[in-house]
Amino acid sequence: MKLRLIATAADRALLDSAGETRTLRWIMAVMLFLTVLAAAFGLGALAAAETLDRQLAGKLTVQIVEADPAAREAHAAQALAAVRATAGVSAAAPVDRDALARMLRPWLGADGADPDLPIPAMIDVQLASPSPATLARVSDAIHRVAPTARIDRYEAWMSPVARFMRTMIALAGTLVLVMAAAAATVVVLAARAGLDAHRETIAMLHLLGTTDAQIARLFQRQIALETLYGGIAGSALALVLVALIGGEIAGLGAELVSGVRFALRDWLALLALPLLFALLATFAARFAVERVLGRAP
Questions:
Q1: What is the pTM of this model?
Q2: Beta carbons of 278 and 228 less than 8 angstroms apart
Q3: CA dihedral 284, 290, 296, 297 (to 10 degrees)
Q4: Residue 288 and residue 145: Cα distance in Å, rounded?
């Protein structure tokens, strides 16, 4: 299937007089603007979810809760040694008390630095392989030396966020598919409107020996080009907006959104959308024209 990027004078004379395809250009610009934004939102959510998974996979926090400071420190030291000796643990380190006091300062104020405040001793653990067997070994090792220790998995804390991310990704993908279906519908309607507007011209072409396939190529070429032109304009505007929003997100400095960075493949996917919609418009226009002409007496 050949698609010339420059329409001939005959093509313009046949198809441009009614102006249907000119309107199609602006409709497609708006649709591609919204589609690129939806796709960018989905890709950003996917990047953030992947970063979150990498950061939280296999991370544990062990809390040693004891009222007696001496017993607390002793159990913490024993738990740290037991964890480091457990197979499948890649790293384990105690959390500095001053760091915990700084984290509690927004709620406790200066009292968070009080040495008599019974702040739990905490240990950060990174598992090399976050399998159930490794988790069971670590849990057994800790509870043998510190029966009251509490083990918190980062993944359990962030599971609602992960579910929200997956929902947003699915929503973005659904919006892109809906916009593609809407674009195909608009193309079919535009093709049928063009056929109605040029019915007499098409009848004359039939008398001259022009086939339905040749007429369909005229319509699909022009519709595809208008879709491509409009799509490039709408996509360019959307990409500028995406870049601006990306700069604002980068300036926030928040860990949760730090993973919203587009890789090269993401930008290429967004840039490919106008071409994909132009191909979709080509097939939709050909289908519509051949279907209508095939029913013509």
A1: 0.71
A2: yes
A3: -170
A4: 75
